[in-house]
Amino acid sequence: EAHDRHKKVQNDRLSVVKSLDDKINALGIDFQNDPEDFYKALAYADALRERDINVHDGGSIQAESIQTYHTAINLIKSKWYAMEEETRLLNQDGRRLDINQELYLPQKSKSIQGLLVGAYSNLAMQYYMANMFEQAVNMHDEALELEPNFMASLLYRADTLVILGKYDDAGAAYSRVLEIDQDSEIADVFSGISKVLVAKEDSFSGGWDKMVDLLGKLIPVNERKLKSILPADMASGTAQSKQQRQQAQIILMRNLKKMHLAMFSYHDHQSKDETLAWNHLSMAYKYKMATLPPFNAAQEDLKVDTIKKIFTHGFWPAGVGSDSKQPIFIIGFPRSGSTLLERVLDSHPLIAGTGEDSVFNGMLDQIRNALVNASTEGDPNAIQRVVQQYAKKVD
Question: Which of 124, 168, 227, 334 would bridge with 140, disulfide CB 3.0–4.6 Å?
Answer without folding.
Answer: 124
